[in-house]
Amino acid sequence: ALYHSKTTSRGRTTVYSTEHEARIRSERAIESALQNADYNQEFEVHFQPVVLLPERVVVGFEALARWDNPVLGKVPPDTFIAIAERTGLIHRLTVALFKKAVSQITALPHDLYLSFNLSAHDITNAETVAALLEIIRGNGIDPRLVTFEITETSVIDSYEAAETCLRTLRAAGVKLALDDFGTGYSSLGYLHRLPIDCVKIDKSFVAGLREPVASGVVTSILNLCRSMQINCVVEGVEESDQLAVLETMQCRYVQGYFFSRPMPFDEVRNTLASGATI
Ligand code: C2E
Ligand code: CA
Ligand code: CA
Ligand code: CA
Question: What angle do CA 45, 243, 150 make, to 5 degrees?
Fold first, then answer.
């Protein structure tokens, strides 16, 4: 049965789904594994190319965290990032991941930009912001080649603290991108109020590109970005006909499985070294 009841210490009977219990159990396991993880060994950064149209050249990479734990196996980033945030481990994790991503990208003989995801806690924590900027300085990477991706939901809770941190980052020369654009409630408001350089259109719109509603939304966002002189990356491009539609819309930056999945660093280096186009 999906549900079973449990008598609590107060003698009350509560109904739990076994699914819910299993989830809590596994969250505990992830939490303790995260607490004891060897951040340098177990975590990797994978890189997904961002492609410029119509030339189809790679101009940068988005860093995406990967965790392979000896006991739990591979845990998806959505899951462990959320748990790291809740348990206060996110600062350590973000710093370790960014360090790795920057040292790898600077090892390449190209001027490619690095886009890195920050979570809500990161962009309200002055210490995290200082550590990120220190890593940029220490590696000698041009800050203009670094973009931090934030989401609207990560700004919402403590807007003022976030705004202060984001302005500090921006003042140091890094770029800011608003991720998952179009999925929230007030994306437009944030675009207006925050110092945003780039918008990433959520992949759900690309998936529905054949329908007039989604394609209308994409066209509108592209036009909005043009008029605000903000760059725009369309995410989640998987098929050639999606790419064809985006090309007719004069979209400049795209990302997605059609070009490449996120790759381990060695693969990035080999691909670039062989001169292969992605
Ligand atoms: P996101 O920032 O929106 O990243 C895009 C996600 O879409 C990635 O999932 C990527 O692998 C996936 N993707 C890329 N191209 C395609 C495509 O063509 N089709 C489809 N269906 N998916 C595509 P991933 O790697 O599982 O990451 C999930 C989320 O976890 C990210 O969403 C981001 O919010 C978070 N995340 C990943 N790495 C980090 C990190 O280092 N720090 C923080 N704070 N969050 C991270
Ligand atoms: Ca992202
Ligand atoms: Ca996204
Ligand atoms: Ca996301």
Answer: 40
Q: Omega before 54 cis (within 30°)?
A: yes
Dist. CA 199–CA 123, nearest whole Å:
17
pLDDT per residue over 9-35, tens digit each?
555 556 667 777 777 778 899 999 999
DSSP 190-251: HHHHS---EEEE-HHHHHTTTSHHHHHHHHHHHHHHHHHT-EEEE----SHHHHHHHHHTT-
Phi, psi of 91 (to 5 degrees): -55, -50
**For residue 70, how far is its CA from the centre of ligand 1 (angstroms)?**
22
User: Could you give the C-alpha distances from 40 to 67, 86, 97, 98, 202, in angstroms and in order?
Assistant: 11, 21, 8, 11, 31
**Pairing between β-strand 43-52 and β-strand 263-264 as defined by DSSP bridges:** antiparallel
Distance of alpha carbon 45 from alpha carbon 63, whole angstroms: 6
Is the Cβ atom of 81 under 6 angstroms away from ligand 1? Answer: yes
Distance between CA atoms of 48 and 161, rounded to whole angstroms? 30
The number of residues making up the chain comes to 278
Q: What distance in Å separates the CA atoms of residue 188 and residue 152, rounded to the nearest whole number?
A: 10
Task: Evaluate: CB of 60 within 6 angstroms of ligand 1.
Answer: no
Residue type, 92: R
Q: Are 258 and 240 in contact (CB under 8 A)?
A: yes
pTM: 0.92
pLDDT at position 98: 98
Ligand 1 center from residue 16 Cα (angstroms): 31
